[in-house]
Design the sequence.
């Protein structure tokens, strides 16, 4: 019967889309490629995922897992003879346990929907990122997503108590216990978290929830020096006694971009400072938060500040950080998410900015990110006509300078296809060899997400 017919006989005709039905689906955010595939399978159960993978593995058909399509590194790019495995119909929140503070969910649950649901129980799932309205928790786990609150709650692997995953041959590996402490041999969930669907397809997750804070405070502040930002991070973390949950930074060019028409946002502070910080504390009292900011002004760590007085104002300040659509105003952009020590950030960003004009000519440079966990987003905007040549040059500059300081080419978006050739900058030969050995052991036929990462 062929791929379409066999898959439809396995899980049902209505759960398998033919190639002509995929035209409106893109290969990833900001990607011109439209999805191509022999079929898209949309299972509703783990058992159906198992049947699909078992058939594909036995018949030499490659499988590309597909979540909320919010990735940036072509990690879900498929070919005409691949099967795309979408978990969009596996979107049930199966259980929320308030006493254990855990949630059992299917991989296709959208992050925002999860937080809305647990909020009714007085809880939060702390992961927060710009794609919260489309990103799925399975995709978050497969890329080990970080987002805005890593400084306090860690990355996705720190919020995941257990996973259920299906191996390439259809074997179901289920470890969904709701315990924080379970020291019984190898912690197998970590094989799948961050593996971008190359070792197994995550189908269900046991997630760790936290109490919803009684208070939330947000401020937007400006500094005239990078040293002031670093000092401000340490000062606020100390003064807030562990309640600092987000410390987002923006260089001047990004701040101007998101606070100037046609952007909806308006500048809460003067646009003339070189650096800006968005600071959030979950659980700190308002008096404690205000006193910490006053102390920072007294120490001359910052030059000006505005404190949100309502939830509407909090949302307005966060919307500046989240307004990624403004990056599309000037041609196309080349995007990087990198990690490096705070001590190297100022020199690194200055050198990149100084060398770009001679390297590619006209461009726009925007820098922002999560200073608290060493993650910067570097975005270079160029005209469409010079994009391919400029992209190669900019990658060599950005990643080449990371190598000397031991930085990471991917802080939170994964490797996919886009960063595969740059992986040796951040991983040794021995590490890559071990990765290959694990891939060979779990997926000897290279059925799962072929060509990604390795």
Sequence:
């Amino acid at each position: 019967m062929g791929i379409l017919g066999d898959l439809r006989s396995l899980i049902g005709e209505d759960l398998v889309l033919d190639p002509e039905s995929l035209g409106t689906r893109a290969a990833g955010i900001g990607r011109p490629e439209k999805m191509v595939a022999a079929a898209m399978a949309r299972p509703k159960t783990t058992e159906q995922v198992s049947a699909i993978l078992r058939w594909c593995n036995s018949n030499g058909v490659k499988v590309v897992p597909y979540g909320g399509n919010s990735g940036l590194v072509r990690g879900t790019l498929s070919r005409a003879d691949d099967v795309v495995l979408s978990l969009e119909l596996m979107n049930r929140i199966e259980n929320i346990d308030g006493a254990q503070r855990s949630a059992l969910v299917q991989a296709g649950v959208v992050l925002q929907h999860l937080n809305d649901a647990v909020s009714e129980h007085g809880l939060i799932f702390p992961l927060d990122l710009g794609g919260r309205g489309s990103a799925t928790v399975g995709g978050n786990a497969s890329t080990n997503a970080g987002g805005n609150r890593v400084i306090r709650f860690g990355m996705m692997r720190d919020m995941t108590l257990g996973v259920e995953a299906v191996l390439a041959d259809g074997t179901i590996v289920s470890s969904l216990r709701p315990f924080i402490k379970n020291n019984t041999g190898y912690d197998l969930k970590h094989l799948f978290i961050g593996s971008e669907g190359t070792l197994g397809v995550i189908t269900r997750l046991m997630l760790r929830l936290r109490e919803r804070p009684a208070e939330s405070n947000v401020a937007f502040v400006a500094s005239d020096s990078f040293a002031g930002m670093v000092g401000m991070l340490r000062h606020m973390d100390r003064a807030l006694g562990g309640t600092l949950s987000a410390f987002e930074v923006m260089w001047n060019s990004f701040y101007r971009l998101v606070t100037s028409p046609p952007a909806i946002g308006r500048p809460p502070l003067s646009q003339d400072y070189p650096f800006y910080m968005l600071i959030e504390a979950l659980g700190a009292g308002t008096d404690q938060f205000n006193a910490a900011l006053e102390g920072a002004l007294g120490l001359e760590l910052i030059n000006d500040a505005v404190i949100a007085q309502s939830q509407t104002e909090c949302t307005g300040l966060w919307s500046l950080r989240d307004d990624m659509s403004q990056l599309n105003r000037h041609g196309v952009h080349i995007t990087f998410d990198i990690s490096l020590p705070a001590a190297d950030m100022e020199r690194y960003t200055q050198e990149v900015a100084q060398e770009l004009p001679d390297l590619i000519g006209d461009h726009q440079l925007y820098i922002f990110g999560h200073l608290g966990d060493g993650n910067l987003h570097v975005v270079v905007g160029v005209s469409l006509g010079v994009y391919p040549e400029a992209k190669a040059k900019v990658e060599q500059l950005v990643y080449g300078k990371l190598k000397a300081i031991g930085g990471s080419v991917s802080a939170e978006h994964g490797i996919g296809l886009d960063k595969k050739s740059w992986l040796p900058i951040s991983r040794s030969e021995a590490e890559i060899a071990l990765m290959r050995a694990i891939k060979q052991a779990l997926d000897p036929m290279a059925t799962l997400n072929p060509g990604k990462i390795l």
Q: What stands out?
A: The mean pLDDT is 94. The first strand starts at residue 16 and ends at 17. The chain is about 35% helix and 20% strand.
